[in-house]
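Suppose you are handed a protein chain with no further information: no name, no annotation, nothing but its sequence. What can you learn? This example shows the usual starting point.
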Amino acid sequence: MAITELHNYTVQEKLNKMDVDLIDVTVSLDVDNAGSNAEGDLIFKTAEIPYAVAVNGGTAILQSCCLIIRGGDGDGEDYDAIDIVIIQENTTLLEASENPAESGDPMSGMINTIDDMKKTCGFFTVTNGFNAGVVALANINNIGMVCKAAEGTKSLYMYGIVQNSADYNEGSMVVRLGFIKD
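A reasonable first move is to predict its three-dimensional structure. Written in structure tokens, the prediction is:
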């Protein structure tokens, strides 16, 4: 457990030390074009969020997330609730056959260990979206998730779980994350 020292800096000094960053990560959706997803399916595999924290093993607060979703059919029809799970380390999700999970595999069938799941910082659901023509846009603000990177790295990682039955047709999604770094 870390020692918390609240009185080392004035409020102004503390605010001047914080950094705000917007990080874009592009992920592939429905890679095998297997058709519509089912609620609870993996929508994208573990992806790196580079430089999510300021120092190796450091912390940050995830404040916002915007999704720019481009379904493979080139319209903005593919959107609805998506869970984003933030984790400390690059963890490969394993399906029951012990093969690495692919998009479309049900999360309920994953066989990862409790030690793998203990690397989870938290998750949030993005539900506020709309059709913007060639893409769908979705957004959530005021997440307030405290995240801590693993020792020796400034990166965090994430994977996504679809909570709808849209067919993303080998599309892609930009996950735009807003961090306050300490």
